[in-house]
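Regression test case RT-17, inverse folding.

Input:
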């Protein structure tokens, strides 16, 4: 039933389902008979009533490649810290196996990269997969050697 209100707009009367057979929406209240969809509190497969679902509204982000290698990075100042603490001896070869054994880098990392932040005071021998230019310069200036592994 429609009515005319004071501002001359047509106002439709709200349908109240489940209010008797005479209302036209009584008994099953427009839900048909039986089944999951006739019950209350059921949302099938995140259906949001025609609104764009949340999982489609949010942007897709990122991609995690299966073959990505985990690179452990260590700065020269960190190596110097362990040398002064006597955890690492300057005479021994510093490589990923030694650093993993001493739990300085994570054991699941497959590559080791030496970075050049900080200063190093002792002559050391390093074996790594990758090295930054500044780290290489600082090591060679002291007379130390860096061996880069071939893949």
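Golden output:
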């Amino acid at each position: 039933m429609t009515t005319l209100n004071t501002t001359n707009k047509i106002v439709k009367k709200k349908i109240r389902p489940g209010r008797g057979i005479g209302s036209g929406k009584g008994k099953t209240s427009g839900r048909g008979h039986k089944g999951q969809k006739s019950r209350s509190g059921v949302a099938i497969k995140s259906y949001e009533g025609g609104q764009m679902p949340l999982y489609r509204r949010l942007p897709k982000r990122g991609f995690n490649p299966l073959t990505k290698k985990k690179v452990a990075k260590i700065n020269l100042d960190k190596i110097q810290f362990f040398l002064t603490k006597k955890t690492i001896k300057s005479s021994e070869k510093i490589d990923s196996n030694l650093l993993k054994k001493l739990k300085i880098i994570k054991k699941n990392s497959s590559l080791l990269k030496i970075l050049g932040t900080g200063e190093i005071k002792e002559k050391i021998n390093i074996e790594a997969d990758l090295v930054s230019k500044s780290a290489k310069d600082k090591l060679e200036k002291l007379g130390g050697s860096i061996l880069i592994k071939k893949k």
